[in-house]
C-alpha cells in the first residue's frame, strides 16, 4: 500500500505491489518494461496481421498476455487470447478481407490493451524517452 498525505491509497496494481512488497521503485520499473515491450509487441502483431502471418500474431498475443498476467491483468490476458484466436479464425476463413477482418474483430481487445498501456505509463511516469528505446 502506498501512503500519501497521511491517507492509505490502494495500489492500482495490487498483485504486483504484493509480489514486490510495495516497493514503488520496483513497481514502476516493471511497469516501464511492460509498457515498452508490450508496445513493441503490439506494433509487431499489427504488422504481422497486415501480412497474414497468423502464427506470429498468435505468438505475440501470447507473449503480450504473459506480460498482462505479470502485472495482475488476468482478465485482460484471457480476453486478448480469446479475441485474437476468434479474430484469426475469422480472418483466415475470409481470405479476401483477412487482415481488415482481424483488425475489426480484435479492435475492442486492442483498445483495452492500449488503455492498460496508458495506465501503466501514467503510473510509472513513462515519458517519450522511455518509449523510444
Tell me what the structure shows.
It is a single chain. The chain is mainly alpha-helical and 133 residues long. It is built from 6 helices and 2 strands. It has a two-stranded antiparallel sheet. It starts with a strand and ends with a helix.
Cα end-to-end separation: 30 Å
Helix content: over 70%
Strand ordering within the main sheet: 1-2
The fraction of residues assigned to DSSP E strands is under 5%
Average pLDDT number: 84
Low-confidence stretches: 1-8, 129-133
Count of helical regions: 6
Radius of gyration, whole Å:
17 Å
Instruction: Give a short account of the largest sheet.
Output: 2 strands, antiparallel
Give the SSE order as H and E letters: EEHHHHHH
Keywords:
133 residues; 6 helices; disordered C terminus; single chain; mainly alpha; two-stranded antiparallel sheet; disordered N terminus
